[in-house]
Write a structure and sequence with these properties.
The protein is α/β, with parallel strands linked by helices and 319 residues long. Helix content is 36%, strand content 17%. Helix 3 links the parallel strand 5 and strand 6. Helix 6 packs across helix 8.
Length: 319
Amino acid sequence: MKNILVTGGAGFIGSNLLLELQNRFPKANLIALDDFRSASFKNLAGYGGDFIAANVAETDWLKSFKNRPLDIIFHLASITDTTVLDEKKMMFDNVEGFRNILDLAVEKKSVLIYASSAAVYGSQNMPMKEEHGGRPNNIYGFSKWVMENLAKTYEGKIPRIIGLRYFNVFGPRESFKGAAASMIYQLAHQMMAGKRPRVFKYGEQKRDFVYVKDVVALTLQALEAKENTVVNSGSGGSTSFNEVIDILNEALGTNLEPEYFDNPFDFYQNFTQADMSYTAKALGFKPKYSTRDGIIDYVQNYLLKDQKSKAETASFRSI
């Protein structure tokens, strides 16, 4: 019997993780925490655990754990929209929220797995190794870098602390992120509506797109880590937006050409690719899905089925 807290539990990665925890450990006491800014209860259909509605950066929710044991914390709650420019808000929510989690882990002697980001690498044109971090382009990446540095100051006070640098994650249950949902989700919905997919000129920017099923598997594998560390969580490949559009056309049975427009962001990462060698060494983990395989599975088994279900519901209501 384990007592497990998942912050950001109604969000994209958090809900996928929470439901997989419930599946793997049916006798565990699960607690989700979320403030629903980029999430929804609809992500947790079938969830049977406890839920705390709160902003992790505030402190009132900590009282909920006064008399509760807590063995494991998965900390995924944060502002994840990289275009948010309010630096104080980004730092307060992400860093102070993490500080609350660290203090709780010390008090409860909990293992802590937390979400960092590929944004800590900034602009680099080679596969990104863990030692290359610390060069963020934006306040989001800086907040994640500060979180990693803060975590180091708690080593020895907490049984184990593992940071996961998530790359460009896509997959089921991301729709409630709105504009911050993956480009794969955004492009797929444009194309499913019969529109040309819109990308920055000229679609050759590359990303390490990693399927959420692999991310969840790696996040759980992090529990097997033997020491405190930070590892990459990506596919290990790099795929251009033009290639993504080609794969989406294949999955959807369409033949839509991209529409290019100017990039308004000066902090944009034109290239990301995770070097997964250290992740394999530290955690014994290798991704199962290529970007192509993940997109095909996502489109055919989730997006198209959701579209069909919504169409059937709309048709029923019109009768």
